[in-house]
DNA sequence: AGCCTTATTGAAACGCGTCTTAATTTAACT
DNA sequence: AGTTAAATTAAGACGCGTTTCAATAAGGCT
């Protein structure tokens, strides 16, 4: 190990912590590497030397956050297939407690040109999901001819997509919850054994009723999309880095 | 209409055409507004005056492309639920014929901070999908208690997600096809009436067999993600705008 | 202790998307 | 035709993520 590595690790922690505080700071959608370096009290070249990119920094922040998820998940014992819906609930709760933070995280992951980073967000969750699917197969809730890996990937992929939609501001948190559960109950209903399929279909219809009119959403987006010209000459130059820096000391 | 509007429309077409050619040009991943303006022979401010943003330009390009999709789709008559898988096939064929072009398009849409733009890619397709779902419900292939809008949205959302994964370089075109069809057959199997469910489950298992090991993919991503430091000091400064401009005249 | 290697710094630079501004061209109207 | 309103231009600027590079600091080693 040696002192060299220790300092490196220390500075990594410092930067990740600063990044988290910066991401959690409200009223500012900007989170630039220059302000990060400033807040962390390091040179603007250091985060690049230690992480390589902005997305890698955010990925590191999100990594440390995975513990929150698993501990919240296991806080309450859940039986049967409900664990899948429970995962959605926990996620939504975390998002609700810190929306801006998770939005920035999700958007940064989404924008990741570096493929490896997307996995930081998805991979541990995939592992969890796959284990739950395996359990369900062993219990006999899910058809044994279903491949746990592929099924978990589809489940997680779908969930992840709705998270992105939420981070983009396309849907509300409630919709994220309902759409994710709707999709999950649909996939589960297909994969489930006959015994539990009916119950899943009932749930599916419940989630469907809770969903907003897709037509309404589409209509809103259409009219917005029709304004093809540049109508936003409103000078959105309100970003004020100094206020953030000072607030974080 | 008047000449003023005519000129405006003409210049819009000019820019959209130039943008398409630029996006189709291989060997260059860069497609900057400055080169676009250069190639189109207009000032770099004009695209902004006419479209508002880079994503709006790309959205306009993709808009004109939707006709390709629908005409290719209706070229061959398809019966029953196969239309959903046919949509995947057509999409994949188009993508295969012009990968770089569609990748850039999908990535630009993905990165759209302007929410309205994402709908340019998804909305017409949603309308198509919803109509197909409605047809299937009327035929009795899909349970009449399923809401066509919500179901179509889930179907399209899932497909869209795999497209993004492909555009990001996470999966190959073949996998895009199989994963999309796997997800579709899963959703359809849940929503389908009893008569067709079994056939869908058979298809589902076929697609599942065609899928690569999710574990393998995950492993690759993990090892890549482990290289947290900046290992890519390879000076990726090979972008040469001039060559593109000259190639396009 | 002194030397050597490695990490960090500061500052500048690049290319990007985008916006601004003043000047110029162009269409519309009287 | 001349005036007015609008679109287009050129040029520069801003902030961003990222990279480069010489100078400096700091740990490792003998």
Architecture overview:
2 copies of one chain form a homodimer. By secondary structure, the first copy, chain A, is mainly α. Chain A has 2 domains: 52 residues, Arc Repressor Mutant, subunit A (Orthogonal Bundle), CATH 1.10.10; 169 residues, Orthogonal Bundle (Tetracycline Repressor, domain 2). In chain A, helix 6 crosses helix 8, helix 8 runs antiparallel to helix 9 and helix 9 packs antiparallel against helix 10. Chain A is elongated, with a radius of gyration of 21 Å. The two termini of chain A are 32 Å apart. In chain A, 40% of the residues are buried. About 11% of the residues of chain A have low confidence. Chains A and B meet through helix 3, helix 4, helix 7, helix 8 and helix 9 of A and helix 3, helix 4, helix 7, helix 8 and helix 9 of B.
Order of helices and strands of chain A: HHHHHHHHHHHH
Assign the CATH class of the largest domain in chain A.
Answer: Mainly Alpha
Secondary structure tally: strands of chain A: 0
Helix content of chain A: over 70%
Beta-strand residue percentage of chain A: under 5%
Summarize the structure.
The structure is a homodimer of 249-residue chains. In chain A, 40% of the residues are buried.
SSE layout:
Two copies of one chain form a homodimer.
Chain A (H helix, E strand, L loop, with lengths): L1 H23 L8 H8 L5 H5 L3 H22 L6 H16 L1 H12 L4 H25 L8 H20 L5 H19 L2 H17 L3 H13 L14 H8 L1
Chain A binds a DNA duplex (30 and 30 nucleotides) through α1 and α3.
